[in-house]
Amino acid sequence: MSPSVIHPLAVHRADGQGGSFATPAFPNLFPSGTTSYSPGSAAAHDKVTPMNFELSIGNIVGFIGAVLMVASYLMKSMLPLRIVALAACVFFFAYGWTKAAWPTLFLYALLIPINIKKALHVHQLVKAIQRAKGDTPVAEWLLPHMTKKKVAAGTKLWSQGDVAKEMLYVESGMVRLVEHGELLGPGSLIGEIGVLSPDNRRTLSVTCETDCTLYSLSAEQMAALYYENPKLGFHVMRLVVHRLTHDVDKARAVARA
Question: Is the pTM of the predicted complex or chain greater than 0.85?
Answer without folding.
Answer: no
